Amino acid sequence: MTYTAPHITKALLKNRLATTGAFVLVVIVVVAVIAPLLTPHAPDAVDIRARLLPPAWIDGGSGTYPLGTDNVGRDILSRIMYGARVSLFVALCTVLLGGTLGSALGILAGYVRGRTETVIMRLVDIQLAFPSILLAVALMAIVGPSVRNVILVLSLSTWSSFCRVARGQTLSVCEQEYIAAARVVGVPTRRIITRHVVPNVISPLIVVASFALATSIINEASLSFLGVGVPPTTPTWGGMLGEGRNYLRLAWWVATLPGVALMLAVYSVNVLGDWLRDYLDPKLTD
Fold first, then answer.
1. Backbone phi, then psi, for 230, in 5-degree steps?
2. What is the mean pLDDT of each run of 10 residues along the chain (286 residues)?
3. pTM over 0.85, yes/no
């Protein structure tokens, strides 16, 4: 199958659901990148006089605060936009770091085999023995809340899935005759891995990365919701949910609107992940 940009775009446009997901995700990314240019207020600007104002379309709302304000008078819209920056940045860094580490270890285990494979896969088994979010909460309670620590902790919860897929695909590729022929003629191991193994395992790893991105967004929000993730001074969707849960009856918008933003982001990534899985491996398509 051809994986050129025009071919991928054409295939994407044929799937309305995937196209919608891609559009939503692009909008979220653009808003996150240019948030300082779009936000009507500073995300941490406090105005007690405007405390718990409803959205502009509800009686009592104000056009100054289109999505209302929270319990200390901060603009919900501005905080949602800045929260998108944190959530996407943490998720992307988590996937890049955990994906690179897990993929490298998986390829190493599948190619070298022997004791190296045994050690790496036992580490994967130990990792999978603990619920990922429980492990993340425990580690964050130890190292303390910060964006860097969230990325490192979530990466430790993500690498094992990449490792298992990379190892399985590498084992399959190494059974091919051209790999055996390359070894016989003395092709260096590094060249075999970079020229033959990696190109054949990259497609399933891209699919894993798409779903890991959605999972990382949820996990970051969960940690912030519990108060052990990103510091409260930094606006995040999970942190806004945590702050607004005490005002669900009095001011539903404080928690509901960040939740909607979180839902749209995760849904769009998952829809694209489903499409990528079918596109990169047509045999899985019904």
1. -70, 140
2. 70 88 94 92 90 90 90 93 93 95 94 91 89 87 89 91 93 88 86 89 90 93 90 90 89 93 94 87 52
3. yes
Distance of CA 132 to CAs 104, 137, 139, 259, 277, Å?
Answer: 21, 9, 11, 22, 23
- Note the pLDDT of residue 276: 87
CA 31/CA 35 separation, integer angstroms: 5
CATH class as words, domain 5-261+274-284: mainly alpha
Could you count the other beta carbons within 10 Å of the beta carbon of residue 193? 17
Contact 66, 56 (CB under 8 A): yes
CA distance 151 to 128: 19
> What tokens appear for 143 in the block?
């190292």
User: What pLDDT score does 282 carry?
Assistant: 58
Question: 283 vs 121, 270, 277, 278, 280, CA distance in Å?
Answer: 28, 19, 10, 8, 9
Closest CA to 239 of 154, 147, 149: 147
Looking at residue 285, what is its pLDDT? 46
Q: Crossing angle, helix 198-226 and helix 253-280, to 10 degrees?
A: 170
